[in-house]
Amino acid sequence: MTSDHRDLVLATLSQNPAVIRTRRELLARHGVTGEADASFDDIADRLAAETGFPYAMVNFTLERQHFAGLHNPPADSGLSIVGRDMDPRHGWCPHVVDRELGLPLHDVHASRLYSGNPVVDAIGITAYYGEPLIHPDTGTVLGTVCVIDQRVHELTESDGLMAIVEKAAAETMANILSR
């Protein structure tokens, strides 16, 4: 299966125009503008610190993936600095949105489905842990909270890492709903 074919398979919930419209309306109702947000940056910073991962994101999936909360590694770390927007077919968050379930990938190369990804080639990501942000009244997935790393993690770490990411997702949803 080629990456292009896999991208077409992913064009479901994560890229469905009606679902994107619903996401946008729900986010707007709660005062989430889709811009960088200091409270989401704080969540991403804590998530990176708790997991030890160099990158953490609060990601809202609209026409593009937008990291309203973003933690990058220090500029002098030698690691790539990522921006706040990404193609909606790249990374693993579209899988989480479409599955409506968390996704622990201690080694993205352990599965052909997840190893052929532009993020692997662009910045060398080999581990991903993500959890959906599900609106409790509608069941609509608004986006994700995730961490990514350039090193493979032990499979035995997955439960603990996912628990941290799940906690951050719950904190993010509480933040959204309190607005």
TrEMBL record:
Family annotation (SUPFAM superfamilies): GAF domain-like
Protein name: GAF domain-containing protein
Boundaries of every GAF domain copy: 37-169
Pfam families noted in UniProt: GAF
Record lineage: Bacteria, Bacillati, Actinomycetota, Actinomycetes, Kitasatosporales
Transmembrane segments annotated in the record for this chain: none
Organism expressing this protein natively: Streptomyces zinciresistens K42
